[in-house]
Amino acid sequence: MRAAIARLRSAAWLGWQIDTNWADPFLFIVYSLLRPIATGLILAGMYWAVSSRVPARGMFTALYLGNAFHNFVTQVVIGMGWIVLEEREEYETLKYVFTSPLGLPMCLAGRSVVKLAIAMFGVVVVMAVGWFALHLTWDWREVRWPELSLALALGVVATVSVGFLVAGLGLLLPRPAIQINEGLAVALYLMCGVIFPIDLLPAWLQSIALALPFTLWYEALRRFLLGHGASARISHWSDATLLGALALSTLAFVAIGRLGYFALETRARRLGRLDQTTLF
Amino acid sequence: MCPRTHSTGPAIETRALRRTFRVSPRTQALSGQSEVEALASMDLRIESGEIFGMLGPNGAGKTTCIKILTTLLLPTAGEARVAGFDAVREPNEVRRRISLVSGGETSGYGVLTVRECLWMYSQFYGVPGQVAWPRVDRLIEIVDLKTEQHTRINRLSTGQRQRMNFARGFVSDPEVLFLDEPTLGMDVNAARTLRAFVAEWVREREGRTVLLTTHYMAEAEALCDRVAIIDRGHVLACDSTPALRRRVQGGQHVELEVLAPNGVTLDLTALTGVAAAWGAPHPERGTRTLKFRLPEGGALVEVLRRLEQAGARVDGIATRETTLEDVFIAVVGRTLDDSGSADDSRSGGSAT
Predict the structure, then answer these.
(1) Domain housing B103
(2) pLDDT tens digits for B242-276?
(3) Contacts of B120 in chain A (CB under 8 A)
(4) Which of these ranges, A32-36, A206-210, B54-58, has the smallest mean pLDDT?
(5) Within a 13 Å sphere around the CA of A137, how many CA atoms are in the beta-carbon half?
(6) Can you give the residue range of the structural domain that contains A16?
(7) In chain B, what residues touch A101 (CB-CB under 8 Å)?
(8) How many domains does chain A have?
(9) pLDDT at B345
(10) Which residues from A are below 8 Å from B107, CB to CB?
(11) How far is CA B333 from the centre of its chain?
């Protein structure tokens, strides 16, 4: 157990070096601040541009919040897909990680810890920009902390689990790995109620969206932080139903992520694709 | 099955190990084959404490074999065991005991320094810090990177990165070390130093085993207790280097430097027992080396006459002692650097 923790720590240390050490510290801090700030402002600009009038403040705050937390998905889910690409193509170290006792799953887990921390930092910055620059506020006394904490924890677990699935796809499909990462980022952005409520999706797509943990996660975070969600379809669900659905979806994706990752890794190992470099 | 030289139990064992790869539809249309056999029922037994060499041209199956043994690739059939564990069913046990170095690679996390990178790999293997740091420092000295130890990897030269990659293989002090063309592209002095280190490393530590694949015959001769000559997924010969050399002793090993017009065909089949193979061309001189073993009583003059008849000119003649390369030519039918012309000289009786 102690050895496993030491390995996880070394993988996290590696992730920290790679994710933060590519520029000098000042440039990195500027980038880390500007990126989420720009994301928040672009969203605000887009929203006001497409609305013929200033939108209902509550709805915009809900969507803004969803957008902030979507940072976890882009950083962790898509980031874990990029870890495979980096290890295999850029650093050409994947086979050495894979054949070491650390193993690729532990490396992915360790490096995803850093991505979670960076995502959390981004969420805080975006929320601060919303609060101070865009006056998107809420009543802190009304925040339901236990439910919010539980939802946050479930969402983080779901995020890492789906990340493993994306990493597995990257192992099996070296050539289209970039397209998979980018395509998935866009698909999740549009389908999970990040910038518009899922009620605007076609009915069949709504069913898929409701099966994804991120849709339920964003709704839960909105409800327990703001007091309301963004989707009319989910708004009549009780808190217990929403949390139960989020827990079930998370559990399902933990299983799918774990089984899927190992199935994809085994298939990649069978086909000899683990160290197949294609890009650089 | 290779003959055994020790009795302490195998560090590596393969039984009927087979691996095929499906080919792309385009290649299939050209070749008519739906799959390529990289390993064909390979039996190997490498004892603990051995430095074992695998010699073979490109596509012989050496790297495929190493990939299976290091758990990177699954075999199509057969069994592969490393340090007593099944590489397919017990990959985690295998990974705890092995390390892999692939030569000619410049892999590494560019943002880390040499020292950080080696330390990090030691942590991947769970080496305690008080053991890891002195080992890292010693390896840095051995691979002559002391002045670059605090330099980021992305600022190292190709040769320096290769040496760091070599050092990485030893940070865990593995039970079984796989060296896949470890000195490929290295300068002569660095390669010599690292070869000496490998020999010392195995000698000083009981139960350490090295499986080395190489293109360099001299490297295999200098380092390996036994050598397997592999071609197209088959082990063609496997023994100690003296024993392999004895197989082709008798007669003379001759190298002719031949200036031959394009399309010259030399038929040596008429000269019984002459196994000949063309070496790599020398573009600057426009010549190519023809290597063959002239049996006892064989007439060199007859070979020269036939070359002349074919329109070729001999610019130089050399005779020498039997080397591993002669064994390779005799067994495989071509030189190691002439893997592209496999079919031409496979019979051992003619060279084109």
Answers:
(1) 10-243
(2) 888 887 766 677 888 888 766 555 655 555 456 66
(3) 10, 13-14
(4) A32-36
(5) 6
(6) 2-271
(7) 92, 95-96, 124-126
(8) 1
(9) 31
(10) 91-93, 96
(11) 17
